[in-house]
Automatic annotation (TrEMBL):
Belongs to the Iojap/RsfS family. GO terms for molecular function: ribosomal large subunit binding. This is Unannotated protein. InterPro entries: Iojap/RsfS/C7orf30, NT_sf. GO terms for biological process: negative regulation of ribosome biogenesis; negative regulation of translation.
Length: 121
C-alpha cells in the first residue's frame, strides 16, 4: 500500500514549514509497507528548545491552514511529536536524534522526495 496523496501533500507542507524555520536534516520515511498505524515519519533536527518549539508551532500552523489538526501532541524540550494519524512529525534535538536514530531504525524503508534540496543547507 503506497502513501496516500493527501498524506504526501501534508508531508510536503510540513517539510516546507520545517525548512522555513531552519530545521535541519529533514527526512520523510515511507512506512506504508511496514506499519498499520502510520504511513510517514517526518524527522527534523532543531538546535535548541526554542527552535524546536518554533518548528512545532509552524508545522501546526501550516497544517491547520490545510485543514488538519494533530490528534495527539507529546513531548516538550528535546523531542516533540505531532501525530496527524498517517503522518507523524518527530522534532528532535541533535542529541536525541543521534541517540534514538529513527533514520537508521527505519533504514530499510524508502525515503520520500520532499523537493527541499535547494532550500535546505
Amino acid at each position: 500500500m503506497a502513501v496516500g496523496n493527501r498524506t504526501l501533500e501534508l508531508t510536503k507542507i510540513a517539510a516546507a514549514a520545517l525548512a522555513e524555520k531552519l530545521g535541519s536534516e529533514i527526512v520523510a520515511i515511507d512506512l506504508s509497507e511496514q506499519l498499520v498505524l502510520n504511513q510517514v515519519f517526518l524527522l527534523v533536527t532543531g538546535n535548541n528548545e526554542p527552535q524546536l518549539q518554533a518548528l512545532s508551532e509552524e508545522v501546526q500552523k501550516k497544517l491547520a491552514q490545510a485543514g488538519e489538526k494533530p490528534v495527539r501532541k507529546e513531548g516538550s524540550g528535546s523531542w516533540v511529536l505531532l501525530d496527524y494519524t498517517d503522518l507523524v512529525v518527530h522534532i528532535q534535538s541533535t542529541e536525541l536524534r543521534n541517540y534514538y536514530m529513527l533514520d537508521r531504525l527505519w533504514n530499510d524503508c524508502p525515503k520520500i522526495d520532499l523537493g527541499l534540496e535547494k532550500s535546505v543547507r
